[in-house]
Amino acid sequence: MAIEISHFSCAYGERLALENITLTIPAHQVTAIIGPSGCGKSTLLKCLNRLAELEGAKPVAGAVQILGQDIYDRSVNLMTLRRQVGMVLQKPVPFPMSIFANVAYGIRYLGDRRWVGAQVEQALQQAGLWAEVKDRLNDSALKLSGGQQQRLCIARTLAVQPQILLMDEPCSALDPISTATIEELIGKLRHQLTIVIVTHNLAQARRIADRTAFLHGDERGVGRLIEYGETRHLFQSPQHALTRAYVQGDIG
Amino acid sequence: MTASSDNLAGISKAEVSNFLAPMAPQRQVINWLIKILFYGATVLVVVPIGWIAVSVLLKGVQNFQWQMLFTLPLAVDSTTSTGFVHNQISGFAHAIVGTGLLLAICVSISLPVGLLTGIHLRSAGLASPVGLAMGILSSTPAIIAGLFIYGLLVPHIKFSALAGGCALAILCLPVIALTTAQALGQVPAGYTTASLALGVSPTATLWRLVLPCALPSMVRGIFLSLARAGGEAAPLLFTALSSLEFPRGLIGSPTPSLAVTIYRYATSPFRVQQEQTWAIALVLVLLVLGIKGLVSLGTGHGDRD
To answer: Which of B31, B160, B243, B290 lies at a CB distance of 3.0 to 4.6 Å from B254, suitable for a disulfide?
Structure first.
């Protein structure tokens, strides 16, 4: 198992955001986290690379194990953890430098500094962007289209060779064609990586995810895991009334 | 339905204004008054600036000779045609070199301290004690900065370039710190998040990503503060003092500057020195404008990204 979340709760100050989440995510699969806005799905994702604590979310109970290691252990090196557990953010965030420098940014800091060029090419190939940008690697990354920028961000993350890729609604700012390209890319990347993707697009979860987790906030706004299983089962024969209502579009 | 012909989608004709009707007379009067007020205010602002610029330029050029840039001041001798001994041209090269030296000392003190203070302010905020201190310091009168150094350093290192540079550095420090904090604050937070998510440490994120992004606005702040410091006379009057020769070192000897030389010549009893004041003023204005122009040229490109 790539990720094991057990009885995990986390809170922003006094306000509980997630309660008693238990979730086991297998390696080399795509796992989608769905649920209405504010149910804590993004927070859960950001707890997996401990980016959530930058926004003030602190774990209050339970444990998260990634690749067999407790990531909330005191001795955890956050830099090493985040390198292993890469993340693609909701809005594409290309740095204001050249396409090449964007992908090389992480390599130059963390990786093997020899063969930077080869590593950049490989990452861009993996992200399916190489053919489009190979002749203009020195152009500003800000000139790329939104979809290309998001694939550049994926390439930048892949360049430091993570084991796990977290994606926080990676297509929500993109048009349908760019979305299709990214979904196709996710389908290819699943062979090398474990992917966890947060999405509010149910059809997308259905198309790309092997397994799906449904989170829902209770009346106090505390996110709970309602149902988790194979995507097909979750959508076709949901066990829980809330899940059924959500996948049928009865509740937002 | 007789009312329907008078109704346009429920609005009675009486309520619809005629768009083509001229403005009411009293509104026309108010309109004119306000226009006069605005143009008047514009003239009030532009005239003094234009006046200063034109008079400095005209009188400066009248009294300027290029040899002045390379020669030292001479004793006044009213019997010669130049007004100075041996009928030679008296210059102010010492003051140009002195101002350069003072600015160099100023920047080498205020830049590192201001940069680090700015980085601190980005996370601490402008309402923090340090932020408030910088706010107060930036509104401190220049002469107080000079007085402070006069009391603190001058007894030990005499009137000197270092003392003058320190006084100028006090003026530049808050400007550099505040513009650095502001420039860093303008770098989108998403950059930091994306960099940390890659496993890059917070320190490396600051030095490799955030600082380079903020550099153009930071450079602008640094140069603008230098341009201001270069024109200050008050803090130099009792720190660097003034002299008639090239600076002799960092400590122990008075150091000339353009600003203080202007003050001394303008209040001089000799007409030749009073006239030369305009030439020095011209050089100082060109120097300050030059720095500002350099900045807008250098950073104009960075603004578009």
So the answer is: B243
Q: Which one of B198, B200, B301 makes the best mutation probe of the A interface by having the most chain A beta carbons within 10 Å? A: B198
Q: Which pTM was predicted?
A: 0.80
Of A96, A157, A160, which has the smallest distance from its Cβ to B213's Cβ?
A96
Q: Which residues of B touch A (CB under 8 A)?
A: 188, 190-191, 193-201, 204, 208-209, 213, 305
| Cβ contact, residue pair A160, B199, below 8 Å | yes
User: Is B204 within 8 Å of A87 when comparing Cβ atoms?
Assistant: no
Is A142 in Cβ contact with B305 (below 8 Å)?
Answer: yes
ipTM confidence score: 0.92
Is the model's pLDDT at B174 over the cut of 90?
yes
Look at A109 and B191 and tell me if their CB atoms are within 8 Å. Answer: no
Could you read off the pLDDT of B263-285 as tens digits, one per residue? 999 999 999 999 999 999 999 99
| Reduced 3-state DSSP string for chain B | CCHHHHEECCEEHHHCCCCCCCCCHHHHHHHHHHHHHHHHHHHHHHHHHHHHHHHHHHHHHHHCCHHHHCCCCCCECCCCCCCEHHHCCCCCHHHHHHHHHHHHHHHHHHHHHHHHHHHHHHHHCCCCHHHHHHHHHHCCCHHHHHHHHHHHCHHHHCCCHHHHHHHHHHHHHHHHHHHHHHHHHHCCHHHHHHHHHCCCCHHHHHHHHHHHHHHHHHHHHHHHHHHHHHCCCHHHHCCCCCCCCCCCCCCCCCCCCHHHHHHHHHCCCCHHHHHHHHHHHHHHHHHHHHHHHHHHHHHHHHHHC
